[in-house]
Design brief:
With 339 residues, this protein is of the alpha/beta class. It contains 12 helices and 13 strands. It is globular. Bound molecules: zinc ion (ZN).
């Protein structure tokens, strides 16, 4: 199905106020990648939280003048090809606007590597607003949502590339005014577009507060991914958020944290909540401003070490499939999850 026709199906269904009708019309829900929409069954093995490029310079100075796109491609492509060779099909790039999001570059890398790559709309409010544009401080949640909805309808920057999710970032709870505004804007955007929400979240309290705000806006927490849930060490909070319907994303897998990630997953499994867990590595990336992009962490640790360790830890093949294929697919499907 062509992109335009897919969008018409989505838009019609969304404006009709029903769960996005793509599933009824086409047999499955849709996913939006930087190279266009795909049927969700095509996603395959998915890394739900990684980065290809990040620029930490701040919203005031960030922009394409800061890097040479050719050099970024040359540096990142071998890592993406290596990932593809391991059997990964889809990578979600979680770099938001004002932190180095460049969707044209992602599209080139997707075509060159053969991976589906998914980008995002939204703003990152953590780190005291360093990555927020000035207007984010004065505009309302409703106005912010309009920018994000516009990216979904008309494309990101000057391209026709559309976001596949909403990515925001909030500090530790209790949430400040800006944090609350961002999750509110995400709720409003979700209700218009069916895009699911990834929120970089400071701690468990901030996760629970965001869930309450979503519910106040009649958004079902199934639309919400609690990003960096591993930073909350109290496993009870993981359970509490999952029982409210949220996705619990343990996304910092590396050699230093592997054991802890497995323990968190075992706890979720014991409580019958593995259906709401996601795993990823938050790895990569080309660091803008550093010599040849600085230290680029490969994306393949999860294949080489983590999955074999999960199996040794008692996770069945079916459970690994759930974590790496089925849960990401269900979580990223474009559909309105309204209460
Ligand atoms: Zn990240």
């Amino acid at each position: 199905m062509k992109r335009r026709a897919f969008l018409e199906v989505l838009t019609k269904s969304v404006s009709a106020g029903m769960t996005v009708g793509w599933s009824r019309l086409e047999g499955s829900a849709g996913i939006m990648t930087v190279t266009g929409p795909i049927e969700h069954g095509k996603m395959g093995f998915t890394l739900i939280h990684e980065h290809i490029m990040v620029d930490f310079v701040g919203a005031g100075e960030v922009g394409p003048h800061r890097y040479d796109a050719r050099q970024v491609i040359d540096r990142a492509l071998p890592f993406l090809s290596q990932l593809k060779n391991e059997g990964c099909k889809t990578l979600v790039d979680c770099t938001p606007a004002f932190l180095g999001r460049d969707v044209a570059l992602l599209k080139q890398l997707s075509e060159a590597s053969g991976l589906y790559i998914i980008s995002n709309t939204g703003f990152y409010g953590a780190v005291e607003g360093k990555y927020l544009p000035g207007f984010a401080f004065t505009e309302s949640a409703d106005q912010l949502a309009k920018h994000w909805i516009n990216e979904w309808k008309n494309g990101i920057d000057d391209t026709d590339i559309l976001p596949g999710l909403i990515k925001i970032g909030v500090n530790r709870g209790p949430l400040n005014t800006m944090d609350r505004k961002l999750i509110e804007a995400a709720a409003l955007t979700h209700l218009e577009t069916g895009l699911s929400i990834s929120s970089h979240t400071g701690n468990g309290l901030a996760a629970l507060e965001q869930i309450i705000i979503l519910e106040e806006h009649k958004v079902n927490p199934r639309a919400f991914r609690w990003v960096h849930a591993q930073n909350e060490k109290d496993k009870e909070v993981h359970l509490e958020a999952a029982r409210k319907g949220a996705w619990i994303e343990f996304d910092g897998i590396s050699e230093n944290s592997m054991e802890e990630h497995i323990q968190f997953l075992l706890n979720m499994k014991e409580h019958g909540l593995l259906d709401q867990c996601l795993v990823s590595q938050d790895s990569g990336w080309y660091h803008v401003g550093e010599e040849n992009g600085g230290n680029f962490r490969p994306y393949t640790y999860i294949f080489e070490v983590f999955i074999p360790e999960l199996k040794k830890g008692g996770f069945s093949k079916k459970e690994v499939r759930k974590l790496m294929i089925e849960n990401p697919r269900r979580s990223l499907e474009i559909m309105i999850r309204a209460n």
